[in-house]
Amino acid sequence: MKKSQDLSIMSKNLRSKIIVAFCLMSVIPILISIYLAFTYIFGKSIWDVVAIIGIGIILALLGFYIVQEIIDPIIRLSFGVRSFAMGEVKKLPVLDRKDEIGDLSKSLGLISGRIEELKVIDEDTKLYTRNFIIRQLTEEINRGMLYHRPSSFAMFGIDDFKKYKSIQDEKLVSELIHLIGNILMNSIEGINKVALFDDGQFAVLMPETNKKEAYRIAEDIRKGVEKFKFPLKARIEGKNPTVSAGMSENPLDGMTVD
């Protein structure tokens, strides 16, 4: 079993940092004060006293800096955890540290990543997520092989999306994705599902649908996007956005997601 060195009482450990900070901010200044009290009685030079007091102040400030180094990341983590609890999974800060705070940050990052994988709905578009639709597709392929039932999967991509993204700001790109996502959502019915698959790409899972029927649905979606009256700011070089599609029927065209 691998031993963790981060939790040992070393200089990289929170316990030792707190002990050092406590000594610098309290024990050492107290010892200096006691020393001054005795030496002042015996008539030491005023400059010696000033020098010793100055050293005490510097040590106290150093202790304060060490404490601040511990407290600041804890405050950052607390705000991140609060945002995390409110559903903003990507708001967790990443702290590159070699102590318990760093371990906690890494653990929260792993939890955040796992939750991101298990998310069903994309927060921005309200469409299904890529990971969810892939899991659903896998289930449909397995069910199709077991019961000999069809299941179709279509991919839609916004034409010239990379060019559009390069010349428009992030807000307009997001609005375009929202608009086309809504068109897809309004074009399907029943148990069919729409997901935001990738940058400018959408996926439609159609259980109990053969390729011929899936082609008809995809063509209706394509025409729906083509005829939709997009606002001028959402158009690509003055032209209405369009989409292209590709599809497969599973398990006829393949027995794996890949």
3D architecture notes:
The chain is α+β, with helices and mostly antiparallel strands and 258 residues long. The protein has 2 domains: 14-118, no CATH class; 130-250, Alpha-Beta Plaits (2-Layer Sandwich), CATH 3.30.70. It has 7 helices and 4 strands. It has helices spanning 14-41, 46-85, 100-118, 130-147, 161-167, 170-187, 211-227; strands spanning 151-158, 193-198, 201-207, 243-250. The protein has a 4-stranded antiparallel sheet, with helices on both faces. Helix 1 (14-41) runs antiparallel to helix 2 and helix 6 packs across helix 7.
CATH class of the largest domain: Alpha Beta
Q: What is the strand tally?
A: 4
- The fourth-level CATH homologous superfamily of the largest domain is Reverse transcriptase/Diguanylate cyclase domain
Low-confidence runs of at least 5 consecutive residues: 1-11
Looking across the biggest beta sheet, what order are the strands in?
2-3-1-4
- Report helical residue fraction: 55-70%
Biggest sheet statistics: 4 strands, antiparallel
Structural class: alpha+beta
The second-level CATH architecture of the largest domain is 2-Layer Sandwich
Radius of gyration from the alpha-carbon trace, in angstroms = 31 Å
Tally of helical segments: 7
Number of domains: 2
